[in-house]
Amino acid sequence: MNTEQQNQRMDWHPADIIAALRKRNTTLAAVSRAAGLSSSTLANALIRPWPKGERLIADALGIQASEIWPNRYFDSQGRRIPREIRHKKS
Protein backbone atom coordinates (compact mmCIF):
# COMPACT_ATOMS: atom_id res chain seq x y z
CA MET A 1 0.00 0.00 0.00
CA ASN A 2 1.49 3.36 -0.95
CA THR A 3 1.51 6.47 1.24
CA GLU A 4 -1.40 8.08 -0.62
CA GLN A 5 -3.59 5.03 -0.02
CA GLN A 6 -2.62 4.97 3.66
CA ASN A 7 -3.51 8.65 4.09
CA GLN A 8 -6.87 8.33 2.33
CA ARG A 9 -9.67 7.83 4.83
CA MET A 10 -12.39 5.32 4.19
CA ASP A 11 -16.11 6.07 4.09
CA TRP A 12 -18.13 4.46 6.84
CA HIS A 13 -19.79 1.20 5.89
CA PRO A 14 -23.61 1.59 5.64
CA ALA A 15 -24.05 -0.94 8.47
CA ASP A 16 -21.82 1.21 10.70
CA ILE A 17 -23.96 4.28 9.98
CA ILE A 18 -27.13 2.36 10.84
CA ALA A 19 -25.50 1.00 14.02
CA ALA A 20 -24.39 4.50 15.05
CA LEU A 21 -27.96 5.74 14.65
CA ARG A 22 -29.26 2.82 16.73
CA LYS A 23 -26.74 3.70 19.47
CA ARG A 24 -28.41 7.12 19.55
CA ASN A 25 -31.81 5.41 19.93
CA THR A 26 -33.04 6.28 16.46
CA THR A 27 -33.23 4.73 13.02
CA LEU A 28 -32.61 5.84 9.47
CA ALA A 29 -36.37 5.65 8.85
CA ALA A 30 -37.12 7.84 11.89
CA VAL A 31 -34.60 10.49 10.81
CA SER A 32 -36.10 10.40 7.33
CA ARG A 33 -39.67 10.82 8.60
CA ALA A 34 -38.62 13.62 10.99
CA ALA A 35 -37.28 15.51 7.95
CA GLY A 36 -40.63 15.11 6.19
CA LEU A 37 -39.37 12.45 3.81
CA SER A 38 -40.57 8.94 3.08
CA SER A 39 -39.16 6.45 5.58
CA SER A 40 -36.90 4.85 2.97
CA THR A 41 -35.64 8.03 1.28
CA LEU A 42 -32.49 8.57 3.37
CA ALA A 43 -31.23 5.10 2.46
CA ASN A 44 -30.24 6.69 -0.87
CA ALA A 45 -27.51 8.68 0.89
CA LEU A 46 -25.91 5.43 2.04
CA ILE A 47 -25.21 4.31 -1.52
CA ARG A 48 -24.91 7.49 -3.59
CA PRO A 49 -23.88 11.10 -3.02
CA TRP A 50 -26.78 13.26 -1.83
CA PRO A 51 -25.65 16.28 0.23
CA LYS A 52 -29.02 16.96 1.86
CA GLY A 53 -29.43 13.35 2.98
CA GLU A 54 -25.83 13.16 4.15
CA ARG A 55 -26.33 16.31 6.24
CA LEU A 56 -29.52 14.93 7.83
CA ILE A 57 -27.77 11.70 8.81
CA ALA A 58 -24.69 13.52 10.09
CA ASP A 59 -26.83 15.93 12.13
CA ALA A 60 -28.60 12.96 13.75
CA LEU A 61 -25.17 11.58 14.69
CA GLY A 62 -23.82 14.92 15.87
CA ILE A 63 -20.88 14.93 13.44
CA GLN A 64 -19.95 16.41 10.05
CA ALA A 65 -21.00 14.53 6.90
CA SER A 66 -17.38 14.71 5.73
CA GLU A 67 -16.41 12.52 8.69
CA ILE A 68 -18.81 9.78 7.54
CA TRP A 69 -18.09 10.10 3.80
CA PRO A 70 -14.57 11.60 3.44
CA ASN A 71 -14.29 10.37 -0.16
CA ARG A 72 -17.34 12.45 -1.10
CA TYR A 73 -15.91 15.62 0.45
CA PHE A 74 -12.13 15.42 -0.11
CA ASP A 75 -10.04 14.60 -3.17
CA SER A 76 -7.04 12.24 -3.11
CA GLN A 77 -4.77 15.11 -2.01
CA GLY A 78 -7.03 15.94 0.93
CA ARG A 79 -8.46 19.10 -0.63
CA ARG A 80 -12.14 19.81 0.04
CA ILE A 81 -14.45 19.15 -2.91
CA PRO A 82 -17.03 21.97 -3.23
CA ARG A 83 -20.57 20.64 -2.74
CA GLU A 84 -23.86 22.42 -2.33
CA ILE A 85 -27.37 21.48 -1.36
CA ARG A 86 -29.76 22.38 -4.16
CA HIS A 87 -32.84 24.29 -3.13
CA LYS A 88 -36.22 24.04 -4.81
CA LYS A 89 -37.07 26.91 -7.12
CA SER A 90 -40.12 28.89 -6.06
UniProtKB/TrEMBL annotation:
<dbReference type="GO" id="GO:0003677">
    <property type="term" value="F:DNA binding"/>
</dbReference>
<keyword id="KW-0805">Transcription regulation</keyword>
<keyword id="KW-0804">Transcription</keyword>
<comment type="similarity">
    <text>Belongs to the ner transcriptional regulatory family.</text>
</comment>
<dbReference type="Pfam" id="PF13693">
    <property type="entry name" value="HTH_35"/>
</dbReference>
<feature type="domain" description="Ner winged helix-turn-helix DNA-binding">
    <location>
        <begin position="11"/>
        <end position="84"/>
    </location>
</feature>
<keyword id="KW-0238">DNA-binding</keyword>
<dbReference type="InterPro" id="IPR038722">
    <property type="entry name" value="Ner_HTH_dom"/>
</dbReference>
<dbReference type="InterPro" id="IPR010982">
    <property type="entry name" value="Lambda_DNA-bd_dom_sf"/>
</dbReference>
<protein>
    <submittedName>
        <fullName>Transcriptional regulator</fullName>
    </submittedName>
</protein>
